[in-house]
Amino acid sequence: MSLEPTWRKGVPLLDAARRLASRRERTSAQLPPLSLPQGADEHAQNALAALQNLTGEWLTQSKAIAAGQDRLLARLQNGMAVAIGYAEGEHPSEAVIIEKLMFQREFVDWSRSRLIGAGRKYHLVRIVSPDRLPERFNPERPSLPTKRGRPSAREQIRAAAAALGREGVDLSSLDNQTMVKLVVRKVQQLYPAMFKTQKGLSYNSVCRALGRF
Question: Could you report the per-residue pLDDT of 54-94, keeping only the tens digit for each?
């Protein structure tokens, strides 16, 4: 069964983020009033007022969209929303559910609905509700019994290590103890909703995920 029919019903990344911006955040901003020198004519005063209104609306829209983007990424990380897209460079490419490790700000190209990071690229990304997924694709309704316990954090650990590498941190030059501390801190920074504590991010788990044994 293809995911394309479900993908067609989805919402592009930026549009989904806009919808998550609250009504209060989308209201016009109240900027401090500007003034012109005494004696300025009415046209100048009107032009200044129009400029201030436009500036206030632009600033507020920008803040609202950024807040909506943060909410969307959090929902994608905790499974309240699902992203479907196409892997770039694969021919033919089929619509796939995108893994959670991709939902971090530095990986997202909002205007083009693309995700790039951790060695992967997806385009034509759309957002759907989990209940729209066919049963065999829905992680909340598995057709086969699943193992109990916390799922592996391997992908998140590797994504964190890749992010540190892009920041110029050479993990290979560090001892395991230091490396683990840096990676755990980065995992919690990138995936705060998934890792409120360090459960699942033990010394052995990090070393095993990065092949440091």
Answer: 444 444 456 677 777 888 888 888 788 899 999 987 666 78
Give 17-50 pLDDT, tens digit per residue. Answer: 877 665 444 444 344 444 444 554 555 555 545 5
Contacts within 8 Å (CB) and 24+ apart, 21-27: 21/64, 21/65, 21/67, 21/68, 22/64, 22/67, 25/60, 25/63, 25/64, 25/67, 25/68, 26/60, 26/61, 26/64, 27/60
- In single-letter form, the type of residue at position 16 comes to A
Instruction: Please state whether the predicted TM-score (pTM) of the whole model is above 0.90.
Output: no
Q: Which residue has the tokens 């021919």?
A: 91
Q: How far apart are CA 70 and CA 187, in angstroms?
A: 17
